[in-house]
Amino acid sequence: MKHLILVRHAKSDWGNPELDDIDRPLNERGKKDAPAMARRLLDKKIKIDAFITSPAKRARKTATVFASAYKKDADEIILRDELYMAGSTAFKDVVATSDDSLKSIAIFSHNPGITDYANQLTETRIDNIPTCGVFCVKADCSSWKDFATAKKEFGFFDYPKAGSKD
User: Fold this and answer.
1) What is the spatial distance between Cα 67 and Cα 62, in angstroms, rounded to a whole number?
2) Which of 36, 49, 61, 161 is most deeply packed, by most CB within 10 A?
């Protein structure tokens, strides 16, 4: 059994129009939401063996916060350039080439690709993975290369404002 956790980066800061998109940091809400969502995953007893992220600053920082909550060092985070503004094919490739010794991986990336990919995995459909949203799928396979064709089951979908009155 393999577990895939898709995480959209936390809310980014648009305050400096001079910054390239890839260099945008997290804003204050993002800095609050990322540790809160990491704690919610820990509370659900979700294990994560590897943290794989887009090279964008906002995605890397979100991954770093989650990794820290899981007592992992930032240097253990795997950067994959193809996850920056990725389409479904890039997600499929990253998953398929993951190390089979890993039972659970978390991928940190961007919309619209992350939502599009999530919607291809099971019968569960969502309109949008909001910033710092988490979508989890379980697959009946022992190798990540078989993930795409394996029988999958929706695990859960959570996001910062789920259940809040905001």
Assistant:
1) 9
2) 61
pLDDT tens across the length of the chain (166 residues)? 999 999 999 999 998 989 999 999 999 999 999 999 999 999 999 999 999 999 999 999 999 999 999 999 999 999 999 999 999 999 999 999 999 999 999 999 999 999 999 999 999 999 999 999 999 999 999 999 999 999 999 999 999 998 654 4
Decide: pTM greater than 0.85: yes
Report the number of distinct structural domains present in the chain: 1
Contacts 24+ apart (CB under 8 A), 63-67: 63/7, 63/106, 63/108, 65/10, 65/34, 65/35, 65/38, 66/7, 66/34, 66/37, 66/38, 66/41, 66/106, 66/108
The CATH number covering residue 62 comes to: 3.40.50.1240
- Which residue range is the domain that position 108 belongs to? 2-12+20-158
- Tell me the C-alpha distance between 16 and 157, whole Å: 32
Q: Between vectors from CA 81 to CA 137 and to CA 54, what angle results, nearest 5°?
A: 50
